[in-house]
């Protein structure tokens, strides 16, 4: 099944897919171990900086090989694509889905760029996600203006996107204080648009709020920061008092930490 079909089906059914970023072989392996033991489907995401680090072709080849190896249903998605060029490169490389993020541009420009991405992706039968409203980037102020339902409706209709990332009190990175999602606004948006709704910045959102957000219409939940943090924190503690040079003896424990984190997330999300 294509990601486009899967996400549309989940949106209709009121269920959510977990979309997790990976950064290297080790984090990818942790994600797949978790999907395997919970029998879950998974969206594997890469940001532009991860693509820069790994290379576009090695990224998708590794993701595909690992999905096959672990016999997990999954797809590869570009997270926060900033230009049509990177969208085109990822689609050419075989990505199942791309995000075009022109959310910091004026509304009409966001519509124009997103529409162009939708048009290109159609020839690949790929899924397209866009963003409307301001979701704070890492280290930016987390004050926000939630996405308006009427804007979401206009945007979705004008662009023909498959998925829309909305701002409802969520932010990237860790939260300084426990977030309170604007679930009322989510309900208003859900009532106006039929495409999938995406929640970015789920690291640190309490479990009950994640589940409530799914019940009220979120069908893709993005997770990045917690994975990175879990992997590196575990590695730091493993290496603090250790002169082991065989990385194959050290990394598996950090992989297991990622696996445990994602198993818990999948248990929360697979409601
Ligand atoms: Zn994001």
Question: Would you give an account of this structure?
Answer:
The protein is an alpha/beta fold and 271 residues long. The chain has one domain (3-269): Aldolase class I (TIM Barrel, Alpha-Beta Barrel). The chain is built from eleven helices and eight strands. The chain has an eight-stranded parallel β-barrel, surrounded by ten helices. It is globular. The model has no long low-confidence stretch (mean pLDDT 96). Bound molecules: zinc ion. Zinc ion is lined by residues 80, 172, 200, 222.
Brief account:
52% of the residues lie in helices and 15% in strands.
Structural key phrases:
binds zinc ion; alpha/beta; globular; eight-stranded parallel β-barrel; 271 residues; TIM Barrel; single chain; 8 strands
Q: State the strand order across the main sheet.
A: 1-2-3-4-5-6-7-8
CATH architecture: Alpha-Beta Barrel
Largest sheet: 8 strands, parallel, barrel
Helical amount among residues, as a percent range?
A: 40-55%
Oligomer: single chain
Number of domain units: 1
Q: Provide a count of the helices.
A: 11
Order of helices and strands: HEHEHHEHEHEHEHEHEHH
CATH superfamily: Aldolase class I
> What is the number of E strands?
8
Question: Average pLDDT value?
Answer: 96
Topology, element by element:
Blueprint: H1 3-13, E1 17-21, H2 25-38, E2 42-46, H3 48-54, H4 56-70, E3 74-81, H5 84-93, E4 97-100, H6 107-122, E5 127-132, H7 149-159, E6 163-166, H8 183-192, E7 196-199, H9 207-215, E8 218-223, H10 225-239, H11 247-269
Parallel strand pairs: 1-2, 1-8, 2-3, 3-4, 4-5, 5-6, 6-7, 7-8
Helix pairs in contact: 2-4, 2-11, 5-6, 7-8, 10-11
Zinc ion binds next to loops.
């Amino acid at each position: 099944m294509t990601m486009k079909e899967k996400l549309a089906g989940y949106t209709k059914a009121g269920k959510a897919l977990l979309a997790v970023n990976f950064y290297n072989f080790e984090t990818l392996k942790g994600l797949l171990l978790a999907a395997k033991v919970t029998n879950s489907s998974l969206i594997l995401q890469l940001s532009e900086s991860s693509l820069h680090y790994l290379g576009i072709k090695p990224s998708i080849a590794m993701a595909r090989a690992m999905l096959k190896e672990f016999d997990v249903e999954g797809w590869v998605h570009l997270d926060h694509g900033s230009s049509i060029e990177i969208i085109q490169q990822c689609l050419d490389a075989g990505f199942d889905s791309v995000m075009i993020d022109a959310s910091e541009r004026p509304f009409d420009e966001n519509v124009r760029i997103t529409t162009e991405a939708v048009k290109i992706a159609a020839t690949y039968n790929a899924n397209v996600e866009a963003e409307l409203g301001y979701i704070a980037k890492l280290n930016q102020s987390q004050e926000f203006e939630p996405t308006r339902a009427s804007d979401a409706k206009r945007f979705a209709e004008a662009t023909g996107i498959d998925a829309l990332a909305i701002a409802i009190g969520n932010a990237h990175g860790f939260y300084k204080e426990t977030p309170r999602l604007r679930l009322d606004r989510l309900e208003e948006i859900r009532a106006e648009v039929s495409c999938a709704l995406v929640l970015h910045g789920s690291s640190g959102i309490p479990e009950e709020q994640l589940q409530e957000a799914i019940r009220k219409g979120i069908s893709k939940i993005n997770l990045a920061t917690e994975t990175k943090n879990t992997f590196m924190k575990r590695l730091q503690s493993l290496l603090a008092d250790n002169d082991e040079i065989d990385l194959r003896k050290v990394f598996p424990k950090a992989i297991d930490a990622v696996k445990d984190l994602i198993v818990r997330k999948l248990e929360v999300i697979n409601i």
